[in-house]
Amino acid sequence: MKAIILAGGDGTRLKAVTGPLPKPLVPLLGRPLMAYILLLLKKHGFTDICAAVRYRAQDIIDCFGDGAAFGVRLSYREEHDAWGTAGAVRRCRDFIGDEDVLVISGDAACDFDLRLLWRRHRERGAAVTIALSREAEPLRYGLAVTESSGRIRAFIEKPDWRRVVTDLVNTGIYVLSPRALEAIPDDCAFDFAKDLFPALLARGEPLLGLPMAGYWCDVGTPLSYYRCCVDALEGRLVLPCAPEFRPAPDEEAPADEEEGFVLDCPCQNRAALMGTLSEELLELRPDYSDGLRLSGENYRLHIAPLPTASALRVCVQSPDTEFARGLAFSARDLIAALEA
What we know:
elongated, alpha/beta, 17 strands, 11 helices, Spore Coat Polysaccharide Biosynthesis Protein SpsA, Chain A, TATA-Binding Protein, 4-stranded antiparallel beta sheet, 30% helix, 2 domains
């Protein structure tokens, strides 16, 4: 499977923090942003990759070389003028050939299942399949209005609040069919969101939007860069960190739970949530020496924060496996309700 990394931006809004570095080389937990994109692509089977580069192109080429260190084949197409996002991909057509291709930004932080996106695209026969993410504050992004089937009805570019009709935003991660690529002109700058997608919709071509589970962040501003670093450190963004940034083993942490039914419940603030949970269960007189422990005639329930991620772990032991499962899910539902 083939992929194109858009790595030509100069990161103007980020220069206050990163200086002259091109955005794909901005560090995140000991590695450049684009290194994580290469590792993500490799993980999901995309091993033939082309990077479209422009600003400080040689710095990027010197950093990543032929991609062998990441287990991929990496080539480059250098732009000397700004051709827009779609135009940059069109100039990689000798690399693409007559195949579908995945397009992703080299300066995003993401842990999406890219193989799932590819599979849905092939199953549905769409001209373009777009990875969508749910954002509570979507004003910086392009919105995608979808039918229940996932087919996209309209795009709304960087709206103000009066025009916000969905929380689904375009992440800039696409799978493109050859017929979509053929709609990109050769002789002018052309953008995906502003030019190509409206033109395809006007022609009646099917564009599919797929809401993705996982983490995505457009690392375009100092604030988003800061948040992304914190999210990676706290486990909300799952990355193969450089060794020096991996969490040290917690020597005081208890060994793994005994056999039982285990659920992990992600949360925003594990300490605050444990406080609320402690109050909620106070009348049941739990043991507080190691998280919250409750026991009855045929069960033992343990709820405790994970040391390396913002989540609570629920473990239930019981000779009745169905009862253990039901109790664990009831505890998870309580945690979710308290988190809300």
